[in-house]
Amino acid sequence: MTSKILVTGAAGFIGSHLCNRIAGDSSIQVIGMDNLRSGRWNRLVKETEKIEKDLCEYSLDEFVDLLQGVDILFHLAAEKYNSSKSTPERLISTNVSATEKLFRAASIAKVKRTVFTSSLYAYGSMGPFVMDEMDVPAPNTLYGVSKLAGEGFLRSIDREIGLSWNVARLFFIYGPFQYAEGGYRSVIVSNFRRISHNEAPSIFGDGEQSLDYVYIDDCIDALIKLAYSQNDREVVNVASGVPISINWLTNEMLIASKYAQKAIHAEPDWTHGSKRFGNPNKIERLFGWCATTTLSSGLESVYKSLGEGDE
Q1: Residue of 225, 238, 237 whose CA lies nearest to 113
Q2: Could you tell me the end-to-end alpha-carbon distance of the chain, in angstroms, rounded to an integer?
Q3: From residue 228, how far is each of 33, 46, 112, 213, 300 by CA, in Å?
Q4: For the whole model, what pTM was predicted?
Q5: Helix or strand or coil: residue 74?
Q6: pLDDT tens series, the chain, 311 aa
Q7: What order do you get walking across the sheet with 3-8 strand by strand?
Q8: Which ranges constitute the DSSP H helices of the chain?
Q9: What are the angstrom distances between the C-alpha of 48 and each of 32, 39, 63, 227, 295?
Q10: Is 75 helix (H, G, I), strand (E, B) or coil?
Q11: Whole-angstrom Cα distance, residue 279 to residue 206?
Q12: Domains in the chain and their CATH numbers?
């Protein structure tokens, strides 16, 4: 039997990789939704039914109609306040109001499993200790608050009328075709672009701030496991558990690109002294997932993709 999967944010970085993976299975009907504010349909190379519409334009009844017959809902669409096209009002409309409506509709339509991509920003931590699912969240950004709200909606709707769900708190996901105009430009994208234009990569402050990087293929593996596992109603970190300093990251980027010029240092920014990494033990124990792609091979793939339209 053919299963039906709906992916919101399908034309974005993670959403497009997810659609391309699952649409390769002829037994799966994939529907992708995106408003194209920072996504691009040309990222999708596999057959996907495309809906170009904003989540905020749907009523509850329209969401219910959309989700009829859907087996799995992947809710990836979100506004980030550091996006050049976003505002606090739009972030709340999308990440809070529309998200609650979507989850409620998933329950009414009897979607078998909802997978929600939350974020490390739900913790609010800048380190130095590892972020663990048992920590009490204290988000200090509007984006983090909205992601924690999304997690809460799943619990409250489940308690009220029933819903099967899993939450992936994503750490720093990277990979080919990450950036689209108006979206978030990571340090990997920014510095590889500088290198491709024969400019030295830039490091803010002393470069000892550390982040937890997970390659996109590993991230997609995690989301699929959360969709199909017998375990549900779980919140898990999608993290490697390894903090990578910007100095180390930049050195690996120079090796991947075979660029000889050293990095230049700029004034410290808000990340100075931070160490943001997650404990992956829970997702490995419950879902059998761990990050396997090495940083060096992942960065090589990203750099090669710059010549394939990742601009």
Answers
A1: 225
A2: 39
A3: 21, 21, 10, 24, 31
A4: 0.95
A5: strand
A6: 579 999 999 999 999 999 999 998 889 999 999 999 889 999 998 889 999 999 999 999 999 999 999 999 999 999 986 665 679 999 999 999 999 999 999 999 999 999 999 999 999 999 999 999 999 999 999 999 999 999 999 999 999 999 999 999 999 999 998 865 544 568 999 999 999 999 999 999 999 999 999 999 999 999 999 999 999 999 999 999 999 999 999 999 999 999 998 999 999 999 999 999 999 999 999 999 999 999 999 999 999 998 654 54
A7: 49-52, 28-34, 3-8, 72-75, 113-119, 165-170, 234-238
A8: 13-22, 60-66, 88-92, 99-108, 142-161, 187-196, 216-228, 246-257, 281-287, 295-305
A9: 6, 15, 19, 18, 30
A10: strand
A11: 25
A12: 3-172+213-238 (3.40.50.720), 176-211+242-277+292-308 (3.90.25.10)
Q: CA 103, 8, 299, 194 torsion: positive or negative? A: negative
Give the residue carrying structure tokens 């590993």. 218
Q: Please choose, from the candidates 238, 193, 209, the residue with its C-alpha nearest in 3D space to the C-alpha of residue 76.
A: 238
Contacts 24+ apart (CB under 8 A), 130-138: 130/241, 130/277, 130/278, 130/279, 131/237, 131/239, 131/276, 131/277, 131/278, 131/279, 132/237, 132/278, 132/279, 133/169, 133/235, 133/236, 133/237, 133/279, 133/282
Residue 15 backbone zone (phi > 0: left; psi -120 to 50: alpha; other: beta): alpha
User: Structure tokens of 300?
Assistant: 């090589």
